[in-house]
Specification:
The complex is a heterodimer of chains A (about 220) and B (about 400). Chain A is about 30% helix and about 20% strand. By secondary structure, chain A is α/β, with parallel strands linked by helices. In chain A, β1, α2 and β2 form a beta-alpha-beta unit. With about 400 residues, chain B is an alpha/beta fold. Chain B has two domains: about 260 residues, 3-Layer(aba) Sandwich (Rossmann fold); about 100 residues, Rna Polymerase Sigma Factor, Chain: A. Chain B is built from ten helices and 14 strands. Chain B is globular. Classes of the chains: A alpha/beta (about 220), B alpha/beta (about 400). Chains A and B meet through α3 and β3 of A and β13, α9, β14 and α10 of B.
Amino acid sequence: MSSVTASLAPADLPQDATGSSRIDHLVMLNLVEPGSRVLDVGCGDGSLLALLRDRRGVDGRGIELSRQGVNACLAHGLPVIQGDADTDLAAYPDDAFDYVILSQTIQATRQPKVVLEHLLRIGRHAIVSFPNFGHWRVRSELLLRGRMPVTDTLPDPWYETPNIHHCTIRDFVGLCRLVGARIERASALDASGHPMRFALPWWVWNLVGTQGVFLLRRQ
Amino acid sequence: MATPLLKSGPEPASQADEPTSPVARFEVDAPLAMDAGVDLAPWQIAYQTAGTLNAERSNAVLVCHALTGDQHFANTHPVTGKDGWWERLIGPGKPVDTDRYFVICANVVGSCMGTTGPASINPATGRAYGLDFPLVTIRDMVRGQAMLLDRLGIKDLFLCIGGSMGGMQVLQWAASYPERVFAAMPIATGARHSAQNIAFHEVGRQAILADPNWHGGRYLDVGTRPAKGLGVARMGAHITYLSEPALHRKFGRRLQDRDAPTFSFDADFQIESYLRHQGITFVERFDANAYLYLTRAMDYFDLAADHGGVLANAFRDTRTRFCIMSFTSDWLFPTADSRAIVHALNAAAAPVAFVEVESDKGHDAFLLDEPAMISAAKGFIAAAARERGL
């Protein structure tokens, strides 16, 4: 396993004036250079994009599947298109953005590998976060109860979950190797969404991290 | 409604030269340079406005009308007596808020509601132009609108908005005068007319040309009108503006004022009666030659072809913010057409939003009460207004 370890101490987190921002959004905010061009794939109501624009002066764009989400973005003046990662990324030119963000979405795509390759092609950097299927709660649901896990980060039962391609942090590191992505920074978030305080080996993150957050770039 | 078969009706109230709206007249020193290679002069453009231009002249909105639309977007129509055609979207407190913006809509070049077109008097002959009028393009329409804005002292637009053929004009505006368009909303449109759309237009034109009352386009000289041909053209086109689910919901197989089929070619079905009515009412307000010219203008529209075959090149270095909108049941300008525009704008790194509105009302949805369209437009326009400091 690589020796990349947690690089985001909680002290790095910006103070959130409104107290309304999601902690994982604040983690991502910290990974983005001010004034850069960002595409947020699966941007929801645009709260991360708005945060990036207001705090980092980012020129942000978004892709969102739900019309409600798109409408919310429009009302905030965010240029967001209705579409999805599987079908719309192919149309973007190479190196169109400094960062392409895929937050909590890769596990819901039909072709995660193809999507990741597009992220690395479209952006100079890719930022990917996902729920860690290797978390001990998930493992224990399977091991002890013999059932598909239902947790805070994965709340849907198996028959109606949009998450069709679960992976563990270790799996994702493997995919990064496969597609030739260099891991620039990585961290695991704990149950409260905070980055883990200490540099820990991968296997520990894979056991206790509820989410993985990766900053990647093309090799 | 029991409607008779189409027949030659009374002359329409002539709006072609003396419309019921303001007109900007351009003399021989200010010709309209047309793509057909003709400098049209003298010429005129009829328009309507709503709202007030602010002191900074920064709140102007140009509304671009569709194929058979006109400048009467927010006032009672002088011929039909109907409400303005886009009052659902434009008016006090509406997304295009006439309390805040100065809204302009001009009849397009080649039409018949007061802007110079084939039904206008050709000063060289003293008769209607007829087919002597040069072929019109979408770009010609936009050039004409730009000259009107110059005349009105409006340097740039806060917003340029339109649906269908109006959306084509919006795209052309963004391509021809990017520095004059702050925000653009092309709705239910495409960057080119598809083969299927050209095919439908050709059927409509052939219906007009086949009407003996068309007289080689000189019908106004002999006091006839190709009402049957134009009516059939409208009937065919009207089907393309709807959708199968909408037709089924509105009419189904229900019979018109009868309990059983008559075993004749009378309008037994409600849908037949409805289409005949559409044809008849259209003939009362529209000129057949103008229909030929405007359908041709749409057919010729291919924005990518004008830019080396790459649509993104039409929007290179644009600073305009775009909001593209399509409707799920629109098969005339399907969502794929809008997506092609979105992809081109993405490739040009333009700020673009895109909404696909769920609707079973077909292409005409952009003119109808679609709350999802209204709310998306409201959000986009309000945010753009904030960015412009309005």
